[in-house]
Structures are given as C-alpha cells and as structure tokens.
Amino acid sequence: MFKKLFFAILFGISISGCMTNQLGTNEKSPVPEEENTTTAQNETTQSELVDAKVNRVVDGDTMKVNIDGKEETVRLLLVDTPETKAQDRPVQKYGPEASSFAENELTGQKVRLEYDGPRRDKYDRLLAYLWVEDKLFNELLLEEGFARLAYIYDPPYTNFDRLMKAQNRAKEQQLNIWSVEGYVTERGFED
Asked: Which ranges form a coiled coil (predicted)?
C-alpha cells in the first residue's frame, strides 16, 4: 500500500511540475520552432474567419473593430499585455509599448477574427485570434515580448502550441516583458 501511495504522489508531483510553464512564468522552456510560424496554417479556412476593420486600439490586447457596420470590442484570445487603462492600478511596465505596437500594426487595418471556444467574455467582448493578412497578431505580441500566454480556461485551443512557441522564443531572447526578472508571473505582471 505504501509503495502505491508513494508512486501516486511522485507521479502527481512530476505532472504538476510539467504544467507550470504553460501559464507564462519566467521559467525558460525551449520548444522546437518551425520556420515562419506567423503564417496562417491550412487548418484555418476562410469560412471560419470573420472580416473586420480595426477602428482603434484600446490597449495591447483589446481593440475596437467594425463588423458589418457595428462596432465591437475584441479581447485577444490567450494573451495578456501589461495594463495601461485599468482604473484600479497604475500603468504597468511595457504596457505603453505593447499598446503602441498594436496601434502601429492594427489601426485602420482590415483583419479577420477567428473564434476558438466561447465567443464572448463576461464583459461582452468578443474573444478571438486576430489575423492581419496571413499573420496571427496574438502570436506577434508574444513573439515580440509584449504579452504573456494567459487565460487558458477551456483547452484545447487551436493555436495554443504555436503561441507557446512564440512566448518561449521571446523568453529565450529576454525581450521586453521577459527582460525584467520576476516581472511576469502566473497572475500577471508584478512591479
């Protein structure tokens, strides 16, 4: 009986240790990368995508878009950038840079939204991957070190692996949010 309990506990500890890196901590975990990971893959078809135009960027991970003449707020799926607009806390490090990056890349652009799971969050924002031509913008934010992988509630997600690889590349290069030790945590960003 003791042996079975010992091995069950050992197995549980080893499994939990393998999963902690998926939440966006500073722990480095190299993942083999494929070339040109920001290009749309074959499993994403035109019929799954919704055309939109970006009216304005709210912050690094939230945009106002026009879909068929109606303005909608889009919260990017599986990514979190430092806050710039939260009323209950100050502007966080790299928040303005993440917002500027999003503004430069997205404002006025025709984009496509890809849903993967629930379409709206509790604030009635659309939850989506955002494609600019053949590039996944969620992935670009991670790749540039402006975002962490987060809000992983109902896996599996279609683009999870490619997003994890993008985050790991930014971590390895210590880009932006990853350049400050201890800044990125499982709960967000610590000043």
From this structure: none
Q: 181 burial class (0-12, 13-18, 19+ CB within 10 angstroms)?
A: exposed
Output the pTM of the full model: 0.77
Domain count, the chain: 1
Peptide bond into 118 cis (omega under 30): no
112 is catalytic: no
* Of 33, 48, 72, 75, catalytic: 75
Write the CATH number for 140: 2.40.50.90
Q: pLDDT (tens digit, 0 to 9) for every residue of the chain, 191 residues total?
A: 444 444 444 444 443 444 434 444 444 343 333 433 333 333 444 447 999 999 999 999 999 999 999 999 999 999 999 999 888 889 999 999 999 999 999 999 999 999 998 999 999 999 999 999 999 999 999 999 999 999 998 889 999 999 999 999 999 999 999 999 999 999 999 97
Q: Considering 103, 120, 125, 172, which one is annotated as catalytic?
A: 125
Domain containing 149: what range? 47-189
Residue from 72, 83, 97, 114 carrying the catalytic annotation:
83
Name residues whose C-beta falls within 8 Å of residue 185's C-beta, 6 or more positions apart in sequence: 24, 25, 26
In a domain, 4, yes or no: no
Assigned domain for 18 exists: no
